[in-house]
Amino acid sequence: MNDAAGNMPRQSRMGPLNPPPETLLEGASLFLDFDGTLVEIATRPDGVRVDAGLRDLIHSLAGALDGRLAIVSGRPVDAIAEFLGEGFAISGSHGIEMRWADGHCEAPPRPDSLPHVRAEMQRFAATNSGVLVEDKPFGAGLHYREAPELEPQARALAERLAQETGLYLQAGKMVFELRVEGHDKGTAITRFMNSAPFHGHRPIFLGDDVTDEDGFEAVVAMGGAGVLIGAERQTHAEYRLEDVGMTLAWLAKAMEVLR
């Protein structure tokens, strides 16, 4: 739904957007991004720390929604489970990995071109301070958050590798990721919504990045709503919360309404 540069399709809106009502989760299926939504974005992917309060909040929300909660992240499924625990659905790697609450998993074969992609990214990182390569089960991410001046060179490398391998180029916040094509956060949410216990309930998705726009677009198409986390920008979301702190506070209040 987004193109390789992270550009948004038409019919999105530009703020200002109001905060979501605390009643929004009544009768809903809830889908949550991780980085930038539930936790602050760290300089390095391995720099994120999750406290017991967040884990308790997620599990309490899943219970209050009768299991209609899923984390939909660009991180691998196993990484999300390590951070937040299990017992709820998780989609990882931008919709490529699907794990339901009962442990049932689905994922395509890993692409043979990934070792070449990772080697080329590592070669670039070795000669450019501040660049980090993130290995994923179905892709690789080239992070330049600590060296923003290298964005043109990082983009050029990612575009070349995408052309050479046929892998999909996903642009995010200070990262270019090459991964398996045909999946995104919107397809993940749609798949969950076609299965129990999500089916038949209004989908709500919270996310912060341009990579979350596919999810916003999908929930809107199914009669739901998106909640943008962070600064105003062009988006398919209907509501907005200022930051991670306000998001966690809103989730806690919305959960009280459900009880």
Automatic annotation (TrEMBL):
Database matches in NCBIfam families: HAD-SF-IIB, T6PP
Q: Which GO terms describe its molecular function?
A: metal ion binding; trehalose-phosphatase activity
N-terminal signal peptide = none
- Tell me its cofactors: Mg(2+)
Q: In which pathway does it act?
A: Glycan biosynthesis; trehalose biosynthesis
Task: Return the protein name.
Answer: Trehalose 6-phosphate phosphatase
A Pfam family annotated for this UniProt entry? Trehalose_PPase
EC code:
3.1.3.12
| Keywords for this protein | Hydrolase, Magnesium, Metal-binding
Which residues lie within the region annotated Disordered? Answer: 1-22
